[in-house]
Each structure stands twice: as C-alpha cells, then as structure tokens.
Amino acid sequence: MDQQYDRRLDKLYTSAVKCPYCKNRIQKLQTACSKCGLHKVQIAYASNKRAKQMIKERDTGKIVKVRRRPTDVNMRTLGLLLVFGFFGVHNIYTGRRIRAWIVFGCVAIFIVQVFVFPVGDIVRTEGGGIDFVGMHPWREAAMVDWGFPFPLDFFGVVAMVLWLSDIFGIILGWYKYPVRLGEVSDVGKIWTK
Questions:
Q1: In Å, how far are 43, 146, 149, 171 from 139, measured between CA atoms?
Q2: 30/19 Cα distance (integer angstroms)
Q3: Alpha carbon 1 to chain centroid distance?
C-alpha cells in the first residue's frame, strides 16, 4: 500500500494541482499550497472510504470533492458498476448519494410511467398513414396532437444524460470524488520515513 502512495506522491510533486480547499494552484515541485498550507501529501492520502463513513455518520468534518481518483476507489469495481450506472449504482459506491437518488428517482418514474402509460407499437397503414396499436390514449395524444413525446419520458432522458456524463467524466477526469484529505499525522509519517 505504501508503494501505491509513494507513486502517487511522485506524480503529485512532478505536476501542478489545484488545492481542494482554497482552489489555489500548487506548482510543480512545490510541497504545499502557498495560500492555505495544505501539503501535497495530504492530497495523496485523500480517502474516499473515510468520506463515505463521515457522510454516513453525518459528521460535520471537512469533505472536499477532487477530480483525482483516490487510491481506495477501485477502478475495476467502478467500471463494473458503470454498466448499471443508469440506476446510479456507481454514485453510491463513490459516496455521491444525492446524485444517486436523483438518477434512481428519474429511472423509477420513467419505468412506472411506461407501465402505466404503455408505449404500444407504431405501425404503417396501407394508405401510408401511421396507426398506434396498444398505445395509451394520453401518449398517443401527445404524439399526434402536440407533436412531441410523452412529458414523463423526460425523466428517462435526464437519467440517461446523467449516466453518460458520469461515464465521460470518469474517462476524461472530470468526475468529482468526495474525499477526506489526509491528516497531519499522515504527513508526519511520510516525513519521518
């Protein structure tokens, strides 16, 4: 585990990063933020697991969101959960519960409305027209009279957009992970090696 943190520290020292607290830029080979004093070692020891525990216990401690994936977030597990990301499962794994509930709520509303207001089939008639077979009258009215899909389909679109934005966010490094930054004792442990 220490080798993993050592590699992470090497990457942090040789790159410029944004301070999660004050948003100041910490330059290459600089050990700490010049504005708030946060050490790059504390960023290396950022823990998603501790942040999720604090959220669960409703602790009022400082949790920040960072774009750099914490070492305790397994990329394989996250990738597997992204397959079921349409239901917001990956957000629960990373501790973004509010977003997970929003996505799950949108999906639940979408699924229920499909059963309550069936989609049916759209078939072409011999005369070249369109006939709606088995479609709920309200859904048919929305398509024929108003010229747009059923309004509750919007929830499915929202869930899909959030899921796709999370996929691209994780791939491109835009996804923000809630973390509890390393403690000062962690910093001391590193310096005394």
A1: 52, 10, 7, 37
A2: 12
A3: 25
Contact, 122 vs 132, CB < 8 A?
Answer: yes
Q: 174: helix, coil or strand?
A: coil
Residues in the chain: 193
- pLDDT (tens, 9 = 90+) of the chain, 193 residues, equals 556 666 666 676 677 778 877 888 888 877 788 888 888 778 777 888 888 888 888 876 678 888 888 888 888 998 888 887 778 889 989 988 899 999 999 999 888 887 777 666 666 666 666 666 666 666 666 666 665 566 777 888 888 899 999 999 988 988 988 888 876 554 445 443 3
Does residue 155 contact residue 113 with C-beta atoms inside 8 Å?
A: yes
**What would the two tokens of residue 181 be?**
């930054």
Q: In degrees, to the nearest 5, what angle opens at C-alpha 107 toward C-alphas 103 and 110?
A: 140
Give counts: helices (H), strands (E), the chain.
9, 6
Q: Are 9 and 29 in contact (CB under 8 A)?
A: no
- What are residue 122's DSSP bridge partners? 132
SS3 124: strand
Residue 185 phi/psi, 5° resolution? -65, -35
Q: Residue 183: which of 2, 10, 44 has the closest Cα?
A: 44
Residues ≥6 apart with Cβ < 8 Å to 148: 142
CB 51 within 8 A of CB 179: yes
